[in-house]
Amino acid sequence: MSEQFDVVVIGGGPGGYVAAIRAAQLGLKTACVDAFIGKDGKPALGGTCLNIGCIPSKALLDSSRQFHNLTHTFKDHGISADNAKIDVAAMIARKDKIVKQFTGGINVLFKGIKGNAVTPIAGFATLKPGKVISIKGHDGNVAEITAKHVILAAGSAPIELPFAKFDNKLILDNAGALDIGSTPKRLGVIGSGVIGLELGSVWRRLGAEVTILEALPDFLAAADADIAKAAAREFKKQGLDIKLGAKVSKAEIKGQEVHVTYADATGEQTLVVDKLLVSVGRKAATAGLLAEGTGVTLDERGRVVVDEHCATGAEGIWAIGDCVRGPMLAHKASEEGIAVAELIAGLPGHVNLDTVPWVIYTEPEIAWVGKTEKECKDAGIPYKVGTFPFAAVGRAVAMNETAGLVKVIAHAETDRILGLHMCGANVSEMVHEGVVAMEFNGSAEDLARICHAHPTLSEAVHEAALAVDKRAIHKAN
């Protein structure tokens, strides 16, 4: 007879492992099944985020930023360094060490739950009728377990273009772009989303000529237009060549080069690069996840269909994270995982998708929460806006980080905050002022009345909130 659990989580990414930990904390017998294999050939929890996404990319972003500052901006501080060099192999090794630290740490967390450890199981899981989970191990052996509740947290996978198949030597997905052995002279990127901008920035800072081909006519269409404009201006200064309205139709490997064919407003063009990163989005990794007869349905994009509480409609089966509706963000997945575990335990649980923050870890950083100005216009919502530039913030000037601005959008009648949008240094940390304020139905006046320490970067939020009613102190209104 197969072993039975109260909860089985399929997927060990930031949604799955967090759900498993919370379920175990609540006294539920819990297992977490995950198929990922690390660079050392051993099972590695953490999913895309910890292994080949959020964490390793931030490690490379930080390393490349240190090198760029050493060679470009330290002179402004009176610091000189002649003939500075970057050891790419050492940089990659540091990244791998950080990844191993965090993926190994999940196993420690699984064991450390008082009185009720999570059971990790390595292998590919398929949900069968009756909440039976068939697990094919990496050795080929198949086992089955059963559960009272199943949480599907299968995550996502990069979208592959039919004319640019990944080989992770010359044509790369996000994982391949994290493991380039030396700085390429020419790097092409298809897609100017989060992955394209972040990894393009890494290799540009290290000396690569980076060309980003974006099919859409607008840059960062998901962000507020003022923020996108400010970011694009800084990226251009940094040497990122972003071509908008560039629709790629072909990518041919010729020797050790990739010849990319694309069309823009002037006609057909060719770009020759040494490496090509394809980052045109991600899709739900639900292939092979469900056997016939589970009662779980997929939508036209292969995502598991769920309600506002992440329930699939099949009794005792839930789904969270990248494999369901909503933004494909690690923190959104984690919050859904906690909410579902608490619902299973009979507690209240809910995630407000309207207050999930977005961050792009470029230089300067880009972050936002809530509605953009365009979204307010399209929805017919009366609104008012306040902005403030980092160039007028004392701490930003002292740090030599004057690029960007903060923008507050508030309802014109109620003053309730509808959105907070930022481009600048460390805005990934500052955006949560908006998240907290919006969760408590706060107003621009509330932010404007809160004392902010001086000198700090967060004063830009304070001044932008004041500017909503045209009473900013440190700029003309």
TrEMBL record:
The active site is at 454 (proton acceptor). Disulfide bonds join 49-54. It catalyses: N(6)-[(R)-dihydrolipoyl]-L-lysyl-[protein] + NAD(+) = N(6)-[(R)-lipoyl]-L-lysyl-[protein] + NADH + H(+). GO terms for cellular component: cytoplasm. GO terms for biological process: 2-oxoglutarate metabolic process. Keywords: Cytoplasm, Disulfide bond, FAD, Flavoprotein, NAD, Nucleotide-binding, Oxidoreductase, Redox-active center. It comes from the Bacteria. Residues 5-337 form the FAD/NAD(P)-binding domain. One of its GO terms (molecular function) is dihydrolipoyl dehydrogenase (NADH) activity. FAD binds at residues 58, 322, 328-331. Its cofactor is FAD. It is found in: Cytoplasm. Gene3D superfamilies: 3.30.390.30, FAD/NAD(P)-binding domain (3.50.50.60). Its EC number is 1.8.1.4. Residues 356-465 form the Pyridine nucleotide-disulphide oxidoreductase dimerisation domain. Binds 1 FAD per subunit. The keyword Zinc-finger does not apply. InterPro entries: Class-I_Pyr_Nuc-Dis_Oxidored, FAD/NAD-bd_sf, FAD/NAD-binding_dom, FAD/NAD-linked_Rdtase_dimer_sf, Lipoamide_DH, Pyr_nuc-diS_OxRdtase, Pyr_nucl-diS_OxRdtase_dimer, Pyr_OxRdtase_I_AS. NAD(+) binds at residues 191-198, 214, 281. The active site is a redox-active disulfide bond. PANTHER family: DIHYDROLIPOYL DEHYDROGENASE, DISULFIDE OXIDOREDUCTASE. Belongs to the class-I pyridine nucleotide-disulfide oxidoreductase family. This is Dihydrolipoyl dehydrogenase.
